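dumping this here before i forget
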Amino acid sequence: MQFDVLVVGDANPDLVLRGDVRPRFGQEEQLLDAADLVLGGSAAITAAGCARLGLRTGLLAAVGADVFGAFTRERLAERGVELITPGSAGGTPTGLSVILSAPGDRAILTLPGTIPALRPADVTDALLAGARHVHAASLFLQPRLHAGLAGVFARARRLGLTTSLDTNWDPTGRWELGEVLAETDVFLPNAAELFAVTGVDPVDGVDAAAARLVRAGTTVVLKDGARGGRAWWPGGGAAAAPGLPVDVVDTTGAGDSFNAGFLAARLAGRDVPEAVAWAAAAGSLSARAAGGTAAQATIDEVILSVR
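structure:
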């Protein structure tokens, strides 16, 4: 096997702005506390977290031949992630996200750029055959990949891989997934995404929303912010793990580091309850610095945290 995990999705720089980040128009100038240009994209941050936790990690993402693309390639190489770039990006510039990070909340402005360029055909059988697991991220930012991801996951399963999905937010508000979840072994949403995907009223609670997907055979692993994580799986299993107390600098990418913690544990043969604990620890520790990758946990940090 070339990779323990093949991550499919988005890779781009994030410009993270902290401080007085609520814009006031009328040409008013505001002073920030900090600005950091860091590796971004849910798939890229998840891939970096997986590599940090010792997994042989490949990332399939469309990245342009420009300064933002060069930055993205350099940061991934520093993390030990092998970037595979298909020819579908053409001459399109690399995407960019500007993150306005305030205490307890954030807003994200994204220039799609190369992000939507990835196609189902780019995820070849040869790539899949060299991996144990395939994870897809930021699906709603990639309409062409979205349209064929169910088929990609079906091919992966026939080749013996397990599959996981983190949709992230749907800017259109439609939240249509088609047949993708039927081919997804592990779905990794936050609460808002879980309610939106299932159509369950939040008043009915996350247990009811998760049950709707578990009945169809999908394990649901919920990112629950500072509270940690929860999981439900076929056969009636359920588990929860608390987040770690840390001095929070920036929560950008914490959910992606959570994904990495869960995948690393499962691919190491750990059971779901322990994998949720790994996920909650990895997500918490990643918030210790600005951006999604600067403070990602090592395997030793995670193991020490969950003892």
